[in-house]
Amino acid sequence: MNSTTMNSASPELLKEHFVHHLNRVYYGKQYLHKHLPDLNELSSFKKLKQGMQEVWEDVGKQVKRIQKIYELLNAKPAPENCVPIIAMFKDAFEPQEYEVETCLLNDIDIILYLQLLEHINITSYRMLKILAGTMGNAEVEQLLLESLDESSDNDKLFVMIADEYVTRESKNAI
After folding, report:
1. Of 5, 37, 58, 123, which cross-links 150 as Cys (Cβ 3.0–4.6 Å)?
2. What tens-digit pLDDT sequence spans the chain (174 residues)?
3. Buried b vs exposed e over 139-153: b needs ≥16 C-beta within 10 Å?
4. Dist CA 53 CA 32 (whole Å)
5. Fold of 3-173
C-alpha cells in the first residue's frame, strides 16, 4: 500500500481498523492485568516481583487510557481474537521441569515472556499512534504515546532485572 492509498482511505475505514487493533490490545491488557498477580506468585527473585508489581500498575493505567480512547472515538470495545498473546502468557504459568536451579530458570522464563509481551505492546502502541496521527486525533495520539513510553520503560526494567539476576546467580554458582 503506498502513501496515497492510505491517505485516500475513508475516515470510517481507518477508525474501524484502528478500533480492531485497539480491541486486541485492550483485551490482552485486561487479561494481563487479571492474571499478572498469579504469575508474580510463581517468581522467586524479589526485584522480579517488584518489577511485575510495577508492570501490573502500569497495565491498569493503560487499560484506563484505552477506555478513554474508546470514549474519544465514540467506540465500544469488542472482543477480538487475542489467542497468541494469551497463549504466550499462559505458557509463562507452566514452570518447566529443569534438572538444576528450577527457581532461577523459571524466573528467567517469566522475564522472557514478559519482555516478549512488552515488545508486542511497544509495536502495537507505536502503530496505533501512527494511525491516530493519520486520523488527526492528537489526544488519542498522546494517550498512546504515554502507554508506549511505559511499555518501553518496562522492557528496559526487565533487561536490568535479568542482567542483575543472571549475573548474581552465576557468581553464586561459582
Report:
1. 58
2. 444 455 557 888 999 999 999 998 998 889 889 989 988 888 888 999 999 999 999 999 999 999 999 999 999 998 876 666 677 767 766 655 555 556 777 788 888 888 988 998 999 999 999 999 999 999 999 999 999 999 999 999 999 999 888 776 555 654
3. ebbebbeebbebbbe
4. 12
5. Ferritin (1.20.1260)
Q: What is the Cβ-side half-sphere exposure of residue 5, based on CA atoms within 13 angstroms? A: 2
> Which residue from 153, 166, 151 is spatially nearest to 109, judged by alpha carbons?
166
DSSP string, 92-132: HTS----SS-HHHHHHHHHHHHHHHHHHHHHHHHHHHHHHH
